[in-house]
Each structure stands twice: as C-alpha cells, then as structure tokens.
UniProtKB/TrEMBL annotation:
It comes from the Bacteria. The chain crosses the membrane at residues 55-74, 125-144, 164-189. Pfam families: ExoD. Signal peptide: none annotated. Keywords: Membrane, Transmembrane, Transmembrane helix. This is Exopolysaccharide biosynthesis protein. It comes from Comamonas jiangduensis.
Amino acid sequence: MLSQLLTSIIDDIHGDTITLRELLERCGREGMLMVCAIACLPFLIPVSIPGVSTVFGAAIVLLAFALFLDRLPWLPQRILDKGMDANKLKPVLHKGVNIVGKLERWLQSRMPALTTAAMQRFNSAVLVFGGLLLMAPLGLIPFSNTVPAVGILLLTVGMMQRDGIFVLLGYLGHMLTVVYFGVLAYLAWMGGTFVLS
C-alpha cells in the first residue's frame, strides 16, 4: 500500500532536521515520483512551515524535469542539504499520509492511455508546472499552497498507480490552481486600482 510505504520512509528519518537528500536516498532512483508525493504532504493541511514550499516546490520541478528527460535528476546542493525542522515537518507529513490512505480505496487501473510511456513526458511536464505553482510566493494567502499540492498529489499518485482517472483529476487540480491564482491577481489589481484612484 502506498500510504504504508510513505509512512515507512518518513519513520526511517531520525534527528532534529530533515533534508531532501535523506528522502532521495531512502526512495532511490525509482522513487522520484514518491519524493514528489512526499513533498506535497505538508501542504494538504492548513499549517505553514516557512521555507518548505520553496525547497519542496523546487525539488518537484527538478525531479519532474528529470522524468520528462528520462534521466537521473540533478539537484543543487543548497536544495539537497537544506535542513528543515523534523519536529514540525514529520507530524505534518504523517497527517498528509492519512489523506493518501483515504484516497487509496479509490485507486484502480483505469484509462491506461493516460499512463503509458508516451504520456509520461506530458504528465511530467504538467508536474513541472505544478511545482512552479507551488513555489509561487503566496504562502500567506489561504490555500495558495494547498490547491497546487492537491493537483500534484493526484497526478503523482495516478502516475505511480497507473490510474488515468487520478491523472485527469491532477490535470483538473492544476487548472483550478491557475483559475484561483488568476482570481487572486485580478483582486490584487482591482485593489491597487482602487487605492491609486
């Protein structure tokens, strides 16, 4: 089960800090999608941990780009070795795993055309886009990290479990994120126009 595997990876990390390098070492080459899934977990609940969205968002972008190119990922040492507070992050990761556990009962092998090797590049490109949305400097705005994280998680889980329905839901999550960010930009523009007038 995916949730059990995620739990075992998180439980295997000890110490006061967590680094992306530790997560990659535990997941291995075949676990790039697994790391992307783990990187979404902190944003599924309304708890803000400063600096995490930048590190995890950048990791998703670079890992997804590696998947797009079908090669091993290259990650800057600054991102790999940036320590994050384990005492704050691990409980949030576990709560995110609980959400994944609830999704698992709906996972099946459906619409295989969306999970073929030919679609891998397109799905990876969408994942890169999702990582960029997650990195947007809007952390203080409600759901600005949660909405893209849900889209990334659904797409990632769909790719891992070969479930085309979840892949489609991931696309929908990304579209909703663009709409949400567009609404925020419009409101900011209208607010600025009102103040200046």
